[in-house]
Amino acid sequence: MDQSALSKVRNRIHSHSMPGSSKMASPYLENPVDIGAQIIQRALRRERVLRDKQNPLAFSDEHLYERYGFSAEGILYLCRLLEPHIKNPTRRSHATTVPQMICIALRFFSSGTYLYEVGDAEKLSKNTVCRTIRRVVIALQRYINTFIVFPGHLPTVTIKEGFSKIAGFPRVIGAIDCTHIPISTPTKQIEADYLNRKATHSLNVQMTCDHQCMITSLDARWPGSMLDTQIFEKSLLRQRFQEGLFDGLLVGDRTYACQSFLMTPHPDPETKPQHDFNMALSQTRLKIDMTLAILKARFNCLCDLRVSPERASQIIGACVILHNIGTIRKERMPNEYQLPPDDIEPFTEDHPSGRGVRDAITAEYFT
């Protein structure tokens, strides 16, 4: 407390403890000598609540990681990045501050809990929490092409070397897979499109990653009924590969068709080189499984997004941007994460050009 506040407290204590005071002699006060202590406690408690609410960073990194998934330095970085887009125009004392807004959104992303529970934890109303999360999500969307870049932020040769060190598989610049993100039941007109093979509603989200588990491309537009290979066939990423814009290969599982720029396993390996090729590809491709597992462990909201497909797509994008920021800044990784189970889709017929490239790599590198 400042000096003026302390002076007011002392004056109030003095007025309660003056000799001959009628309040001192009142039979209705049980412990009049404790009134001063109670006044001080109430004043300190008001100050402490105000400080914690206005400055959520006034805690240890351990506390912040547990609740928000970022360190104080990481949250301050996000504040500087997003402040121009989310800062309240009003200067009223009860306006939500930028650090508060960032922490509200991070608590929702990391916990996946209901909005009223986030509000209770942050001492704010559910409506305030909802508006705040929306503003942060929209602000993060501005940076989607800054933080999600294919084949990555590092030089292509560095990415190839990083993948090659895993199992000796050559020329790889990305690992690809899809993952289902549960969503609320859409409107009747489109509900059937979002039913996946497990009879639940979801988005089927395509991502690629580099050797450091940075997410390098994202396509979160498609309903759960779409197959992985169908999504890739319609993707901008495939179009750019077809146009020859990248010098390197993707690696994927057997749900994808083997193409000249996308390597998948030999469907029926018979020789040792073919088995060795499949083993090396599987170990290299594991990076995307790890990336998806870390992403969902970091942001538990992705285990069940109780929003519309459009809102879900935007929240997924925000979480991927935050994942990449956390990876670049070397924020603490989740202590535990589970690799996704194999989700077997129908195998896809390989392209002749893909089989040719696969056979050539098998002969040159695994014989």
From TrEMBL:
<dbReference type="InterPro" id="IPR026103">
    <property type="entry name" value="HARBI1_animal"/>
</dbReference>
<dbReference type="GO" id="GO:0005737">
    <property type="term" value="C:cytoplasm"/>
</dbReference>
<comment type="function">
    <text>Transposase-derived protein that may have nuclease activity. Does not have transposase activity.</text>
</comment>
<keyword id="KW-0479">Metal-binding</keyword>
<dbReference type="GO" id="GO:0004518">
    <property type="term" value="F:nuclease activity"/>
</dbReference>
<keyword id="KW-0539">Nucleus</keyword>
<dbReference type="GO" id="GO:0005634">
    <property type="term" value="C:nucleus"/>
</dbReference>
<keyword id="KW-0963">Cytoplasm</keyword>
<keyword id="KW-0540">Nuclease</keyword>
<keyword id="KW-0378">Hydrolase</keyword>
<comment type="similarity">
    <text>Belongs to the HARBI1 family.</text>
</comment>
<dbReference type="GO" id="GO:0046872">
    <property type="term" value="F:metal ion binding"/>
</dbReference>
<dbReference type="InterPro" id="IPR027806">
    <property type="entry name" value="HARBI1_dom"/>
</dbReference>
<dbReference type="Pfam" id="PF13359">
    <property type="entry name" value="DDE_Tnp_4"/>
</dbReference>
<dbReference type="InterPro" id="IPR045249">
    <property type="entry name" value="HARBI1-like"/>
</dbReference>
<feature type="domain" description="DDE Tnp4">
    <location>
        <begin position="176"/>
        <end position="324"/>
    </location>
</feature>
<dbReference type="GO" id="GO:0016787">
    <property type="term" value="F:hydrolase activity"/>
</dbReference>
<protein>
    <recommendedName>
        <fullName>Putative nuclease HARBI1</fullName>
    </recommendedName>
</protein>
<feature type="region of interest" description="Disordered">
    <location>
        <begin position="1"/>
        <end position="26"/>
    </location>
</feature>
